[in-house]
Amino acid sequence: MNRINRLAIVIAASLSLATPLAAQGAGAPVTLTGDVMAEKVVLDADGKESIKLVEPTAIIPGDRLVFGTDYANTGAEVVSNFVVTNPLPAAVRLAPDADPALVVSVDDGKTFAVLAGLSVTGADGTARPAAHADVTHVRWVLARIAPGETGRLTYPAIIR
Known about the structure:
It is built from 1 helix and 12 strands; from the N terminus they run H-E-E-E-E-E-E-E-E-E-E-E-E. By secondary structure, the protein is mainly beta. A hairpin with a 5-residue loop joins strand 9 and strand 10. The longest helix is centred in the first third of the chain and has 12 residues, at 3-14. It is flat.
């Protein structure tokens, strides 16, 4: 089996992780549905490029994916401070153009902050600023979800 086929299998297995690992607010009437789409460059009739999101099929290192979580408040009450935490599959890294305000973890979900405020310790014991490739989880805190409200949370990733 060649490297691309193995990578495709790993990514396909990782797609099951598109659904959030954790959502705080157990008992809250909020439904979550995750998906993963691949970015594909397409040309229009005039040769102008645009990006289209498609189902991932043949993917290779360097390809871009967009992980998404749709949420909906199916209840009759406002839900406050609802937390959604998504793990990044090991086969991807957070894209460098991800929103710098995105709250992330570089320690398997133990602590969260914006990437610029995090550091990692190397095997030699020295600390360095955390990089996009160090991110293990992303987190959103939805301050208020009104009854019937829906929304979508996304982050871009790149195949390692």
